Please model this.
Amino acid sequence: TIVWILLFDYKSTWKNAKVEIVNTYNNTKLADKKLVVSDPKWLESNYAYRDDVITSLKNDIVTNWSKWYFLEDRAITEYDSNVWTRNTLNKVKSETYNVELKNKINERLAMLARESNSKNKTITRKEFLEKSYKYLVLSDITRWNLKDYKDLDNDLNKKAYSLFWESLTWKDKFGENYFQPDKQITRWEVTFILNNTITNNTHLHLSAK
Model:
C-alpha cells in the first residue's frame, strides 16, 4: 500500500474475473471490482484454433506471449512445448484424487525436466506428436484403432489416434488425409492438441496406448 492506496499488478485470462478485497480477520468483504479482460490482439473470431487458444489461456496451459499478442501462427520452440506439456500434466494432477495417477504424473514431470530445452529451436508436428504421446498418454488401456493419415506409418497413426480420436484432425485443407509430420508446428496447433487430449480423453486419464 502507498498512503492507504492499494496497487495491483495483475494478469487475467478469464472473462468473468474480478478482484475482491477481504478482511481475513473477520471475513468481511471490503470491496470488489470486475476486471476488463480482452482476447489476445489479432486473434480474430474466425481463426481456426481461436477457441483452443482461449481455453488454454483460461487453463493456464500456455505462456510466453508478448504485450498480449499470442503469436499464434509462429512455430513453437522446444522450451515452450515443454512448459505447456508440463502445465497440462500439472492441471490433470491438480484435478485428480487418484494417488497412482498423481505418482505417474510426477514420474513424467521428472522425465520431462531432462528434455532438450532450447528457446531458439523449433519443433515439427511429428516431434510434438511423439512428445505428447510419451508424456500425456497416462492410461494403461490398449486400443488398436488407427488414424488414416497417408503420410504416417501405422505406429504414428496409432499415436495420432490416441491424441485426436476418430473425428478430429488438423483444421487446414490437408488435415483430413495428411498429418504433414515434417511441418513446423505452430503455437495454436499445439493448443489444439493439448485441448483435445484433455477434453476428449479425460475419462481414460487423458488417453490410451
